[in-house]
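note to self — DONT lose this again. spent like an hour looking for the file last time. sequence + predicted structure for the chain T wanted, 477 res
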Amino acid sequence: MQINKISQWIVVVVAICTPCLAHGQETQLAETLIHESVPGEEPSLYEPISMNYAEAPACSPDQARAESCVNEMCLPECQCCNFLDQFLMSHSPIYPSMKSKRIHMGGWIDQGFTGNFQKPNNNFNLPVTFNDRSNEYQMNQLYLFMERAVDFGGDELDWGFRADLLYGTDYFFTTATGLETHNDGSAHWNSGNGPRANGGDSYAMYGLAMPQLYAELYIPWLSGVSIKAGHFYTPIGYEKVTAPDNFFYSHSYSMQYGEPFTHTGMLATFQVNEQLQLLAGVARGWDTWEDPDDDAELLAGIGWVSSNKETNINVALSSGDQDNNASASANRTIISFVLSHQFSECLTYVFQSDFGIQDNGALNNQFQVVPAKWYSINQYLYYDVSETLAWGARFEWFRDQEFSRVLQLPASNATGGNYYELTLGANWRPHPCVTVRPELRFDWSDTSSPLFNVQGPYNDFQEDYQILLGGDVIIRF
């Protein structure tokens, strides 16, 4: 099934032309949309999951508060971190006009350090990714975005767009084939000289990625319908690439090895009523901007929230042909189930389970090509101590049944395939725009392959366990 490149070029034209169209227009106060917080309520440090996850909290639409947020750098009462916005309002000749069109810019910087008690010779915490460097500073994300968010739930037809740029060490995990990398896997605009490796290609430690570039149309039907066209983050799973949207600095195995990060295609969101939301779309394969084989995948999902807003259930599906080493086109399907429940104003529990299968994805003991399967169970527990401090815990079991997802070992020469991790951490907000996330993480696995001198997946493949102590600081602007 062939997908046209129209959706890619639509968003490029919109992103380039919109600021130009705004230039010269009469300046007025920008309309502000509610994303996460409700005025008058004390927001929890953890927000329940939603398929319409908001990456950037905004202020109350109240006129007085909105004016204050424009005139002040950051106000605790509306959780508005608009350093960049204020700077551009004062120094850019066209940004005030863009704001009058509901176009705004923002971002954050995320930087951290992870100590590894085993001090691996290769300086990697692998198979842990994102905060993958041991005993070394990382600027994970210098993140910028420009967007015009649609008025979802409004009574009129509306349009919007979003463009994201990510610079830092996390770029490596958000690249898309045909965009940041060529079809053969080599780096496109980033350096090919560095300590990172994937297959036979090498990559620099720091680089630039464009994880989102899409246009969006809102239709006032049912309780709201939006259609995205372009390059966007996956609706599958629980954890996100964007640092402010996660409780922990490190990521689960499920997110790192079992799920896609981005898609390129079209995705429709149907808000049936206040409690029910449906997703349907079609896209290219996992983390792909251009697919040489023109493969396609189905995206689908259903989200439900209880009437008291305390329980959320999300089920998301991706299924379609994907390129792999054994076959140019073989079906890959993943189903993700996420349940969130707030037991009280302070205590929140999240359960996640993934199941994935890749046709022609592995070789069995008889050297026959067989499907590769992976599945997981993740559990999260969050407790808000105060308005500025919360504790959290995550326990995960990830099963790489045919050794195709993590170490990619031949099944005939490997044993185990189970990965476990327990992470204890905290979120501290000394300022509404600053989040500090310390954590202690324990990893262990029974995976080994004596033939390839793999005693375990940790400490340069010589240990079956790993202890990491680290954390990061996120500053939103």
